[in-house]
Write a structure and sequence with these properties.
Keywords: Cell inner membrane, Cell membrane, Membrane, Signal, Transport. Strands 2-1-3-10-4 form a five-stranded mixed sheet, with helices on both faces. It has 474 residues and is of the alpha/beta class. It is globular, with a radius of gyration of 22 Å. A hairpin with a 2-residue loop joins strand 13 and strand 14. It folds into two domains: 240 residues, Periplasmic binding protein-like II (D-Maltodextrin-Binding Protein, domain 2), CATH 3.40.190; 139 residues, 3-Layer(aba) Sandwich (D-Maltodextrin-Binding Protein, domain 2), CATH 3.40.190. The N and C termini lie far apart (48 Å).
Length: 474
């Protein structure tokens, strides 16, 4: 595992000495703003030292919380306020409107905004915040219907991963009773939506298509999906409005603790080491404030390295920080249930999950073009992108939004300071090798998105489009 080396502490000490009366962000309270003059002298180009960043109350916002609480933002001459947002739309609107300088974002948000799916804005994602971190939870009622027939291991516990095909008789029963089978996810362009859809489709269930301008995406659906903000997922499940949901932690573990639901599959089991959140900015912000952008990235990378250092040595402290009401605000035991190398699927069923949250290792911070392209293949698969495009279009859109050049510039500066090792930087042209780590084992090649779309059993194919009466063409 990678380590944040001691030289970073020396930088912090020098910064404190220079700024004299400026309190470090890691000291807990609001720090006074460092002057732009002092910042420029100390850091050579931080144009905007006082910043406000948005986040949603999920454990994968950890790099931002750690960058503030451990003083990494302050080391880089930044005074950062972190502000929780009510939902993903409010967060995106805040960044677009300039009320927020940047944010913890769904990987699909800067892509969708740049494509004009919903609100149009020129966005970039210069850093990936983490890998994995989501799960799918079912209500106790549905669990009681599927659990008796699940294959069991030698310990008597259900064998994992649990495929969505086990839901087919349940969905059929609901249909016979004249009721739709409903599940929740957090946002139409969220990884949670695409992972849930992928899991359902791999199990032979159609999660529905999006009509142009439609945010519901229920045309032709066997399972109807709707949007619920992450912290409200457990209450929505308990109320019976939905029969399950796809969400990030700690809101699956919250269902376990409240004894209202059972997690059945993690996103790492759906797509091994999938990209989850990104750090999102407006393109014009990065162009206007390149020094500030670089400083932000350096601070966040240091926080990511701290989170994964020494095989998770710092995770217990991270749990205590995230449990504070100004961050995630969930009980420490609920956050720790998935943040410290374990994942609890139910009472008495806690399993090793060392890769459930990855922030720095396995090149987690590098924004791969192929990850952006996978997101767009799912947008096309389910009709959010309504028409066909050639492979070159997908690559061009990915390169417009994902900015590994900015990531590498910041990371290389940290390598030069001996803060992170050179081995933490991938040797890549922005594309991962062909990926077979999906629950249905369908290979994904980011250089050939159209062939990939064609290979998926359920979903739009070349020449097809969605109308109110269903899928036509192709």
């Amino acid at each position: 595992m990678s380590r944040v080396r001691g030289k970073g502490r020396a930088h912090r000490a020098a910064w404190v000495a220079l700024m004299a009366g400026v309190a470090l962000a890691g000291c807990g309270g609001e720090a006074d703003a460092p002057s732009s003059k002092a910042t420029g002298l100390a850091k050579g180009g931080v144009e905007k030292p006082v910043l406000k960043l948005g986040f949603i109350k999920l454990t994968d916002m950890a790099p931002l919380a750690i960058a503030r609480e451990k003083g990494f933002f302050a080391e880089e001459g930044l005074n950062v306020t972190l502000e929780p947002q009510a939902n993903w739309k409010v967060l995106l609107d805040g960044v677009i409107g300039g009320q927020l300088d940047g944010a913890h974002m769904l990987a699909g948000q800067p892509i969708a905004a740049t494509l004009g799916l919903g609100t149009r804005a020129e966005m970039i994602a210069p850093l990936s915040l983490d890998l994995n971190g989501n799960a799918i939870t079912l209500s106790n009622r549905v669990w009681s219907m599927i659990e008796p027939n699940l294959p069991k291991g030698a310990d008597g516990k259900p064998a994992h991963p649990i495929p969505a095909s086990v839901l087919q008789p349940v969905v059929g029963k609901f249909r016979q009773e004249g009721r739709p089978f409903k599940m929740g996810m957090v946002f139409p362009v969220s990884t949670h939506n695409y992972e849930l859809r992928y899991w359902l489709a791999a199990g032979g269930l159609n999660p529905g298509y999006y009509l142009p301008g439609d945010v519901g995406g229920t045309t032709g659906a066997d399972v109807q999906l709707s949007v619920t903000p992450p912290p409200q997922m457990p209450a929505t499940l308990e109320a019976g409005t939905i029969e399950g949901y796809s969400v990030g932690e700690p809101w699956n573990q919250a269902a376990v603790k409240k004894k209202i639901g059972v997690p059945v599959v993690t996103d790492d089991q759906i797509w091994h080491d999938n990209p989850e959140k990104v750090f999102g900015l407006r393109r014009d912000f990065a162009a206007k404030y390149p020094g500030t952008t670089a400083a932000l990235l350096r601070a966040i990378i240091k926080a990511q390295a701290w989170l994964d250092a020494d095989r998770g040595r710092n995770r217990a402290e991270a749990v205590r920080i995230l449990a504070r009401p100004n961050y995630v605000g969930a009980d420490e035991d609920v956050i720790a249930a998935s943040m410290t190398g374990k994942f609890t699927f139910g009472p008495g069923d806690t399993r090793d999950a060392k890769g459930f949250n990855v922030f720095f290792d396995r090149f987690a911070g590098y924004p791969f073009y192929s990850d952006a392209i996978w997101t767009m293949t799912q947008m096309r698969r389910w009709g959010q992108i309504p028409a066909d495009h050639d492979d070159g279009w997908y690559t061009a859109q990915a390169k417009a939004v994902y900015r590994p050049d900015l990531y590498l510039s910041a990371a290389k500066a940290l390598v030069e300071r001996k803060v992170i090792p050179a081995s933490a930087l991938p040797q890549t042209d922005g594309f991962k090798p062909v990926d077979t780590g999906f629950i249905d084992h369908v290979p994904y090649d980011g250089r050939k998105p159209n062939a990939y779309i064609q290979s998926l059993r359920i979903g739009l194919k070349n020449g097809q489009k969605v109308t109110a009466s269903g899928v036509t063409g192709g």
